[in-house]
UniProtKB/TrEMBL annotation:
This is Ketosteroid isomerase homolog. Keywords: Isomerase. Residues 11-121 form the DUF4440 domain. It comes from the Bacteria. GO terms for molecular function: isomerase activity. The keyword NAD does not apply. It holds the Pfam family DUF4440. It comes from Nonomuraea wenchangensis.
Amino acid sequence: MTLVQGAAAAIAAAIDDMYAAFVAGDRARFDSHLHPDVTTWETHLPGPLRTRAELDAYRDARDGAGHRPVMDTLTARDKRIDVWGEVGVARYVLVAEPHGGPAQHTRVTDVLRHTRGRWLIAHHHAELVGEP
């Protein structure tokens, strides 16, 4: 396995672990995959969240109001990952199966930086789409 292949495999594993952490309700583990300067742009969010503090404030308010989504599964499918040195880009379809609801498909692009020996998401962009 080349260095690039190894980095791509590490990114794929990190993405899978991040979504497993969300399903498990383990916010600390989920957050361990985010760069401190992460930007988050998602269809359902109230505009782009340009800092980690904005993301945390949004999640604290959502969770405090009892609106944290409950998912049976979150699966990143059809991953395409490219790596250029200390930067990686992952594109995939996220299939979310909410508890008691139909599956939702989201196109995701994550930009990652290799920081302190780990691949961390520096930018997350997700757009809800219909069935693929």
